[in-house]
Every structure is written in C-alpha cells, then in structure tokens.
Specification:
271 residues, D-Maltodextrin-Binding Protein, domain 2, 2 domains
Length: 271
C-alpha cells in the first residue's frame, strides 16, 4: 500500500479495543442471524471451501465501521479483497473463520480482526460467539480471554504434547497433509483438528493445546491469532524454524517448539 507518515502511531491498546468491538459485533450478529437451519452457501476454491451469506454480511459490517472510523487505513478481507489506504495501518478481517463448522452448527468458529502497523501486527481479537469467548492482545500488552490474562502450557516433552492442525481445501493437499499427521501422531500425545486456524491459535494461547501447525494459510486466517499466541508466551515460526508467514505456521509452548519442528521435519521428508 501507499503510506504517508502519520504524526504519531495510534495507541496499540486503543486499537486492541477496536478489534474487540469489531469482532464481537460482527460475530455475535452472525450467530444471532444464523437460526436453526443450515444457511445458504456458495463455494470458492473448491466444493469444500464454503462461504455463507453471513460471512459476507459480517465482513461488510466490519468494513463499514472501519470506513466510518478509520477511512484512510488499508483493509484486507477474506471475502471482499483489499482496499488500499494512505496510512501506515492495514486491517485483516476473517468474518467467519471455520465456515464449515458454522454451516453445520458446530461451535468452533470465530470472527478475527487484526491491525498491522508497517506490516507488523500490533493488535488483534478473535471472537468465538458460540462459546462466548473473546481473545485479544496488543504488542507488549499480553493476551486475554474475556479480559482475563492467559498463558501457554508448560509442557516440555514432545510425547506429552497435544497438537492442533488443519487441512486445506483441495483433495490432493488434504491427502498430503493427512500423511504427515499419520507419521506425527505416534510421536506426540494426540492430534486435534477444530477446523479453524483462529480457534487453534487461541487454544495454544490459553494452554488448552500445546502446539499448532499448518501450511497454506492466508494473512486473515492467522493475523490476530498469531499475536494472541505470541503475547501469551508461544514461540512462533514457520515449519522450518524461520520467521513465520501465513503460508507456514508453527505456534507452540517454548518447551516443545524445537522438538516439534524436528518431528515435523521427519514427517515432511517422508511425504
């Protein structure tokens, strides 16, 4: 994006509060309007990549608020693409992360909102409406769930590590990812798959799982969740131990991060 020099960066705590408000309002509205019947859907990259009317409505709601309150910032959203800005800020929106869960009436889905300053995320929030939870963080401000501080687990043994992961949408990619999980599962405590990267990262942050890894993600999937996990004490990298990027994510409690990278490397070499 084209950036101009802001006279003073906004308070990260204030941006965090805005992330919380945006995610909560849009997410709770999506839950309230869903009803008991499965919502109408269309597909995107494959027949398994669903989008509902509620995804579109939730993103429009968030964008409308940002247009009113921060009209000069850039906005990146899963459903409506990019709006260029003239400030140093860019917002990343995933209106419903875990759309398949939302479609089937499962509770593991969330609305994710994050804001980056000069391409570095400074604040973010994930609202899980069906569970009544709001996770948030800002740089240097720690991570919370419903206002209470959270922290990663203290697990230090790889064979005692509960690992979350996710799969892509194409059949070939899923088969490859499942093969990696097959080789990994005998070396860790167990595997969990919620169907939402945002949810998985929040579970790492609060210590409900010890680690999470996934490939082939987008910025809006993980921008908020990665900051929340990092502020809760997680060690963050890509699958090769290098700086994280949306296409390759590992978030783990520090005691098992290196060991997880090693067993993942073994599993991926055999793929």
């Amino acid at each position: 994006m084209t950036a101009t020099s802001d006279p003073r960066p906004d308070s990260a705590a204030e941006l965090r509060a805005l992330c919380e408000r945006l995610a909560t309002e849009a997410g709770d509205a999506a839950l309230a309007h869903r009803g008991d019947d499965r919502p109408a859907t269309s597909t995107k990259s494959s027949v398994t990549d669903l989008v509902t009317e509620h995804d579109l409505t939730a993103e429009r709601s968030i964008r409308a608020t940002l247009e009113a309150e921060r009209p000069d910032d850039a906005v990146l959203g899963e459903e409506a693409g990019t709006r260029e800005g003239t400030t140093r800020y860019r917002w990343s929106i995933d209106p419903i992360d875990g759309t398949t869960n939302f479609f089937y009436g499962l509770p593991m889905w969330g609305t994710s909102v994050a804001v980056a300053l000069d391409d570095s995320t400074v604040a973010g929030a994930v609202r899980l409406p069906a569970l009544g939870r709001t996770y948030s963080a800002h740089v240097g401000g720690g991570a919370t769930c419903n206002g209470r501080p959270i922290a990663v687990s203290t697990t230090e043994r790889i064979d005692s590590t509960l690992v979350a992961t996710g799969f892509g949408y194409s059949a070939d990619l899923r088969v490859s990812q499942a093969a990696i999980v097959t080789r990994l599962i005998g070396r860790v405590r167990d595997i969990r798959r919620t169907g939402s990267a945002a949810v998985d990262l929040c579970l790492v942050a609060e210590g409900s799982v010890d680690a999470y890894f996934e490939e082939h993600l987008n910025d809006w999937d993980v921008a908020a969740g990665l900051l929340i996990a990092a502020e809760a004490g997680a060690r963050i990298s890509d699958l090769d131990g290098e700086p994280v990027h949306p296409g390759s994510v590992v978030a783990a409690t520090p005691g098992v991060h290196r060991a997880l990278l090693e067993v993942l490397a073994d599993a991926r070499r055999s793929d």
